[in-house]
Structure formats: structure tokens, C-alpha cells
Amino acid sequence: GAETNDAENVFFRLQRWRDRPVQVLCLDARTGRPAWSRQYEQRQISALGLADDICFVVSHQLPEIKWLPCARHRDSRPDQRGECPDCSYEWQGASASEVNVIRTADGSPLWTGQIQTGTIESVYLRNDRLVLRTTQHLYVLAPDGTKCGWQRLPGGLAQVDVTGDAVVLGTEDSRIMALSLRDAKPRWQRTIEGRAWDLQVAEDSVYV
Predict the structure, then answer these.
(1) What is the strand order of the sheet 166-171 is part of?
(2) 120: nearest Cα among 108, 103, 137
(3) Is 71 in a helix, a strand, or coil?
(4) Are 13 and 55 in contact (CB under 8 A)?
């Protein structure tokens, strides 16, 4: 699984493997011994990050697979999925993303929240703000889970970068805009020539 670390610990996100459940595992960086772990039943971890003394985990619910039998297998399911070319399957169930914030010291939960409007595609930690970008919206949260603001994202979003006090967006329709990192409110917008193929923020400048 992917890993991240602070001065004292190393954190791993372990995906499901045979009988092992999805979990976050914390190891002591000095000894390699397990400090704590937290399991996430029936979920898939999509992001793991650290900020000061907290660890955030973004996960989504695993959808259920519904079997749609063919005429030959109405009374008996094939031994393996995909064994019969005439049977079909479809995914069912909500794919809402969930944010879990836990203490890095002992793994105890601080708060949990769900994002219903689209899958969380990226997460940014800056100062005392947690920025979540879904397929349709951008949310700004405080470390305690308080929603500080949100903004519907424009269609055709091409690039996103986060600086000290702003989230900078580049769109396919030749716009560059900045949203406040405090409350997600628009700060400025500019029009450029062409599409923002790449966008980087360094100090007080935006490079496109």
C-alpha cells in the first residue's frame, strides 16, 4: 500500500488482500513495530494524508455486484464471475466518499463526514484547511470538520494547484481563477489564450 510519514511514525494504507481487511496501519519509525491500525470494512481507501497531529483518510463504499443470469443459469450461478459469456453483472450501491479524521498518536477517531456530490478526486492540506475536490465541487473544511465554504467547479476543469491562501484553477475554456482557501469564495479570474495544459503556483506567481 501507499505510505506517508511524520517525524515519529510511518503510515500505510493497506487495501483488501485475501482475508486481510482494508486498513490504515501506523508503525513506529524507530522500531518498525505496529503502533495502531484502523479497519474500513466494505470500503476502499483513496487518499491518506497528515497535518500536524491528525491523519485524514478518504474512502468510498465498495458497490455490490448484481448477477444477471442467462437462460441457462437461472437456477445455478457459475462458479466464477465471467465463466459464462452469456451471464452479465452490474454494479449497484452508492459511491459517496467519506472523510475520516483520526489522531496520529493513537488512531482514535475525531470526526467523520460524507461527501455526496461526486467522488473525491484529490485532497490538499494547507495550513489549517482541508481542501476536497470532487467531480463537481470544491469543499474547504477546518480540521474539526466544520465546512468553511464550497464552490461548484466549472465544466472542463483542466488543472488545479493550491498555494498558501488560494486554490488556483485552470479550465479548458481559457480561464484561470483563484478561490479563497479560507471559504472557497472567488478572488479573481483571468482569461488566457488557449487551454491551461499545465499550471503551477510558486510564491505569489501563477505559471501557465
Answers:
(1) 157-162, 166-171, 175-180, 186-191
(2) 137
(3) helix
(4) no
Instruction: Provide the sign of the torsion angle of the four alpha carbons 99, 123, 61, 108, taken in this order.
Output: negative
Give the angle subtended at the CA of 102 by the CAs of 201 and 57, to the nearest 5°. 55
Buried/exposed code over 158-168 (b: 16+ C-beta within 10 A; e: otherwise): bbbbbbeebbb
Among residues 35, 36, 56, the alpha carbon closest in space to that of 45 is found at 56
Rounded distance between C-alpha atoms, residue 122 and residue 100, angstroms = 15
What number of other Cβ atoms are within 10 A of residue 133's Cβ? 20
pLDDT tens for the 208 residues of the chain, in order: 556 677 788 888 887 666 677 889 999 988 999 999 998 877 888 778 787 788 888 887 766 677 778 887 877 766 665 678 787 777 665 566 788 888 888 999 888 877 765 567 777 877 778 888 887 788 898 878 888 999 888 776 767 888 878 888 888 788 888 999 889 999 999 888 877 777 788 777 888 8
Category of 128 on φ-ψ map: left (φ > 0), alpha (ψ -120 to 50) or beta = alpha
Can you read off the three cell numbers belonging to residue 51? 497535518
How does 26-55 read in b/e, with b if 16+ C-beta sit within 10 Å? bbeeeeeeebbebebeebbbbbbeebeebb
CB 101 within 8 A of CB 110: yes
